[in-house]
Fold this sequence. Notes:
The protein is an all-alpha fold and 87 residues long. The protein has one helix at residues 20-62.
Amino acid sequence: MYMSDEVPTGWVKPVAKPTPASLKARIAELRTELAAAEAQLREMEEGARLEALVKIRNLMRAFELTLADLGLTPTPKRRGRPRKAAA
């Protein structure tokens, strides 16, 4: 049923339970690793975003498209509520 490699045979060295201090240290280690990984992820996402923008601009230039052709409106220069339209 079991292969001989999977089942430990003979004496197995006991493993000590982790102490609260060792758990806190491990959590601190993992948090620093997480912060580094998140920073690397942000860099990768920013690079991918910039690369996508460059591709979009190149395609727009190649096909001579404008923002209006894509159905996009320019962002308003004035903040707040829009002015009333003349009736």
